[in-house]
Amino acid sequence: MKFAKLLQSSFQEQQIPEEWAEHAIQYKALKKCLSQVVDELKLIGLEKETLGILLKWQDQINKNQSPAVSYTFEGDLQGFAPKIILKVDKASGLPVSAILNNYKIEELDEKTVGEPPEVIVSTDGPEYQRIEIKLKSDTRFFHMLRSEVADLQRLQKTQVEHFHGSISILAQELASTTNPYDGRKSKLDMTVWRSVFELYLEASIFFSTHERDLGTRTAEQADAQLTWFKNKLNEQKYSDQFKRKKNLLILKSFLDMNDQILKCLYFQKLNETAVRKILKKFDKRTALSSKDQFDDFFEYNGKYVESVSRTICFEISNELIRTIPQIDDYICMICSSIAYKPIKLACQHLFCLRCLVKLRRMNEDKCPLCRQSVVKAADARNLDTDLMKYMKLYFPRETKIKQRENDDEIMKEKFQQNGLDKPCCIM
Amino acid sequence: MSFPKRIIKEAERIVSDPVPGIIAKPHEDNLRFFDVIIDGPEGSPFEGGHFKLELFLPEEYPMMAPKVRFLTKVYHPNIDKVGRICLDVLKNNWSPALQIRTVLLSIQSLLESPNPDDPLANDVAEAWKEDSSKAIATAKEWTNKYAK
């Protein structure tokens, strides 16, 4: 399938919104413009084959000499023009690769019809002349591409701002519907949300934190992860567990937003492919190397997917997920469960009371995280009472379980001390 | 058999999010036993080798370090004939904040940078100090012979 068609059908398949599609790279129009470039080059005798030979020849010459043909962008981002620079032998009027016998500069003017290219002739050393050719169609092609890319970048900025807005709104709503001071329903819904976000983080939809594939995901990978997340949500029936209807609506908005982000990734990816394809086509049909020039000159790196995933991911976890405190931020590094009751050592590292008691029993004085000698000096004053209250409020279930486990363990130890843990026997 | 939360969590994570070049598989019937394979680090004489180890979490874990031993023969100054490893974090420098994955990473980097000044296998350390290029050649030979 032709790429222009493929692009069109992909937009339909991904249900890209109309207002985005308007900003898409106009691949067809660019292709048409490219044909004009090819025609114009042919008219002045610099068709693909000729340029190919000239460019090839330049590789063999002395590195200090300026090349027989070069292709660069001149000017600034607004008023730039691509130009072909030829080096021509003064005496013969032939390009320095004298192997080309069918081309002379005088012929340039004769051959040109329609819009004449801008030609500047200057001297390049005693033997050579330097001829700069600015093709009208070439300039048009790159201005078109440039404005399309700029347009896309503006759209992308709007998209990111839009997502940013949605995230903030969701975070505010969530904060109000899960406020633990607000009664039992809110408290219960907070725990449901916690499980939802835990799953969401595990899915790491747009950005992987796994060691094997650290970094941003492609649109396809993100798609698969998002599907996984949704399936899991259904399996666990989280949406049925909400006590407040409002939370169900927030979940729906959250999922919609993720769909939108994914769509945005697909859209931008398709456009990046379009840019790459058209530049590749340009190089193939003209033998000029525009791809690197373009990337350098316009600082175009096609890393859109990456930057958006990063920004949005950061905002989701920073603004939205943080609304619901996650257990991972409050666990004891020793036992991997909630650091309750929390003891803050002099080095500011946090552990649960039980683990510190065990450490002390082993006569260990060093903090497990920073190895400072602070364990033995810790006493009742190191209990972080504010944090303890906070944990009880936000993690009611976890703190209760932990307390019970601690009590059980203490009991067991007491029995052991008294030798009562052995199976009994009848004397 | 029930296991502490920490052991369950660690076992889960090392399977779901493995360290590159390291595979650790807990025994199905006992989460305290792990079968480990560490790939020889690139650029070291152990490159291309897959080294089998066994790892065991003692009752006191994480207050005490895991017990780790090479099952594959290795020519290395800090690993002896029966696979015991001389590594500070497995002994005095153990901290309960360290984990299975950090220990295995340390072992991986020990393969990368042998330390003949703190030897466990005396003969290997001597050989390493006397003629390191010859010792490296032997290590490569052993890797080809035993770790492929």
From TrEMBL, chain A:
Record's keyword terms, sorted: Metal-binding, Zinc, Zinc-finger
RING-type domain residues: 332-371
A GO term, aspect molecular function: ubiquitin protein ligase activity
All copies of domain SPX, residue ranges: 1-296
InterPro entries per the UniProt record, alphabetical: SPX_dom (IPR004331), Znf_RING (IPR001841), Znf_RING/FYVE/PHD (IPR013083), Znf_RING_CS (IPR017907)
One of the GO biological process terms: regulation of phosphate transmembrane transport
Gene3D superfamilies: Zinc/RING finger domain, C3HC4 (zinc finger)
GO annotation, cellular component aspect: cytosol
Full protein name: RING-type domain-containing protein
Lineage: Eukaryota, Fungi, Dikarya, Ascomycota, Saccharomycotina
TrEMBL record, chain B:
Gene3D superfamilies (alphabetical): Ubiquitin Conjugating Enzyme
SMART domains: UBCc
GO molecular-function term, one example from the UniProt record: ATP binding
Enzyme Commission number, as recorded: 2.3.2.23
A Pfam entry, by short name: UQ_con
Active site (record annotation): 86 (glycyl thioester intermediate)
Enzyme class, spelled out: transferase
SUPFAM superfamilies recorded: UBC-like (SSF54495)
Keywords annotated in UniProt: ATP-binding, Nucleotide-binding, Transferase, Ubl conjugation pathway
Chain ranges of the UBC core domain: 2-148
Protein family per UniProt: Belongs to the ubiquitin-conjugating enzyme family.
The protein, known as: E2 ubiquitin-conjugating enzyme
UniProt source species: Tortispora caseinolytica NRRL Y-17796
